[in-house]
Write a structure and sequence with these properties.
With 256 residues, the chain is of the alpha+beta class. The protein has ten helices and seven strands. 38% of the residues lie in helices and 19% in strands. The chain has a five-stranded mixed β-sheet. It has a two-stranded antiparallel ribbon with strand order 1-4. The protein binds zinc ion (ZN).
Amino acid sequence: MVGPPLRNPLMPKKAAEAPARIFRSEEELAALPVSERIRYRIVSADRRYHANDNIAAFVREGELAELKSEVQAKLQEVLRALVIDTDGDHNTNETAKRVAKMYIDEVFGGRYRPMPAVTEFPNVERLNELMIVGPITVRSACSHHMCPIFGKVWIGILPNEHSNLIGLSKYARIADWIMSRPQIQEEAVTMLANELQDRVRPDGLAIVMEADHFCMHWRGVKDTDSAMVNSVMRGAFLKDANLRREFLSLLPRKQG
Ligand SMILES: [Zn+2]
């Protein structure tokens, strides 16, 4: 073999490897399936694209419609592999199309659409009392089985005079944007905490999420009662046990 092998840009880069890339012209890119085009841009920018990452910055105008068609065609293949007669069975005739649309526009939409616009206000009243937002109903899907996750989130904020305040409904919008992706509950609450920390910059931030994982009900152990609870405590909530207790005692969730 002559010279080092060219790295396939679609494969994850190894840490020690030189950033050799196969550069493609716009023309070559245009000939690729849209998912490959988007992936090429992400890999070129050296960005992560896990199931719960947002990739909106790499999707150009009009490409989501194209992506829906590509996903639809692949889902049609899945139905075929499941030996379902989608031509004869009127119920599954349009299923691939419906599911592709549901994934991209709705249940995984938080991967493909940019962060919702949120106006921040300076804390002119210098509010510094514990604020609790919730319960916010959240819907997600687990990354492992792509089964639904339904739950509630409570957010505790201890602002300081430099904090930016955001409208109450915006907490729900940001939560929805983060949850509308294939998620892992522990990572979802951390992502939500990071987003709020960056925007609000409070002295303390606490998040509790309690959710039902349908992969527990529908398959596996078929346990119908289990819910998963996760929390993130930052800043003052981490240091001050009284504040933490106050927050937890104000959550109207069933204890124990
Ligand atoms: Zn699962």
